[in-house]
Amino acid sequence: MDFVQVETTAPRTLEIPQIALPPTALSLTSRIPKDAIRTSLKASTTDSVLTAVYSLGTGGILLSNFLVELGASPVVFGMLCSIPMLVNLIQPLGAYLSERSTSRFQYSLRTHGIGRLLWLVLVIGIVGVSLGVINNHQLVILTLLIVLFSNLLGGLGAASWLSWVAMIVPPQLRGRYFGIRNSAASLTNLVCVPIAGLVVSHWYGGSIQGYGVVLLVGIVFGIVGLGCQYFQVDMNPQSQNTYYGKLPQTNEIQQEARELLAGSKGDSSNGDSTPPVAPASSIWKNSNFLRFLLYFSFWALAVNLSSPFFNLYMLDTLDLEVSYVTIYNSLQAGATLLMLIVWGKLADKIGNRPILICIGILVAATPLLWLGIGVNRLDIWLWLPLLHILAGGTWAAIDLCNNNIQLAIAPTKNQSIYFAIAAAVAGASGALGTTIGSFIVQFAQFGGLLGLFAVSSLFRLAALIPLLFVKEPERA
């Protein structure tokens, strides 16, 4: 997810007959200027870097450790992991609302902007605990409420954002561009996660206050990241749906985008043809999308049987300090950083489905490698770091290729609806997986966490079967 300097030029204003556009909206039937494409790609990359800093405080290991410090129960921990997935059920509503808007940028501000500002309430709550105004239990409840409502607002805007980016980035370059973009975010995690962990662990007022400081900094970065979206070419969803089959000069636009991303100019080639646009008929008649949906939902269930509990295993069962776990997460981010560009280029050459199948088998076997991990020096200083490095390299391929193949399969018209349904089904499946995993952990006869890891591995292998029948559009 290259640090870049965003050009300070506003999107051009163009008009479409019979469709009212806001000042920043760009018609899909008009030729996108080269400078606008360049600025959009830079702005999106910068946004990913700043959002990565925001995500450090609002999720992941730091938020989990914060709840552990407050004395939260395992049920609360399970809810924390389930909420971000379960709220994806609201994405179809968000897609419907976004398609009735006239600006992707304005819609993003109303959803993601308010969602990020909500975390300021938690900062105030942490101050309240320090002053004795509220107790730890009340702060735990407040945290869960903020997680719920901020993720609900994020769910309303997620499909719209993905559809926006899908229209900006040419299909033939998605692997490479998102590889670079995600690498920038991973580099940010690599640098910032251990720093944030040290701040939380060594803050003079205690780890809870230290988390509040990290959270406040993250919120500021998150709001600035949203501001970067102003420099992206804005899209009018109504014009996208009305004129989806009438995009002139598409080959030339994609060729210019290729040159911009490569950093050089070249002659136009014959290999920049656009994949045929899928008919915008009923989603349920799109058999290829339904096969992908089956894979995506089953995969989410299988993965989330165990994934939310790896941090719990290290923090609770192994009783490791949060600073150790943040170092492991940094190693994972470093591996992701190194491999994302490799996977992106490879996906552009051979397609996403072969990578998902091959790497998916390795990801399915990974939970088995946690069996036997203990608190001895060899495991802490060698095997746990190696496990996180392996996870970083493999999940870089899974996340990137899942995103790209979804962009390729979904038709252009009402695209955000397809994205929303996929996210909603996968979110519900993931939440169900976390819930099932929580029950398995409670029963010692099933082997606790280690037994859960073994079950998850089998489910992950089975989840890859529907992917064998998914057809990825041919690449020019």
From TrEMBL:
What transmembrane ranges does the database entry give? 48-68, 74-97, 117-134, 140-164, 184-204, 210-231, 292-310, 322-343, 355-374, 380-398, 418-440, 446-470
Superkingdom classification of source: Bacteria
Q: Where in the cell is it found?
A: Cell membrane
Q: Where is the signal peptide?
A: none
Which Gene3D superfamilies does the annotation name? MFS general substrate transporter like domains (1.20.1250.20)
Q: How does it sit in the membrane?
A: Multi-pass membrane protein
Q: Name one Pfam family in it.
A: MFS_1
UniProt key word Transmembrane: yes
Q: Which PROSITE patterns match?
A: MFS
Please classify the protein's predominant subcellular localization into one broad category.
membrane
Q: Does the keyword Transmembrane apply?
A: yes
- Record-annotated Major facilitator superfamily (MFS) profile domain positions: 283-476
The UniProt keyword set, sorted, is: Membrane, Transmembrane, Transmembrane helix
Q: PANTHER family this protein is in? A: INTEGRAL MEMBRANE TRANSPORT PROTEIN-RELATED, MAJOR FACILITATOR SUPERFAMILY (MFS) PROFILE DOMAIN-CONTAINING PROTEIN
The name on file for this protein is MFS transporter
Q: Look up and give the organism this protein is from.
A: Nostoc favosum CHAB5714
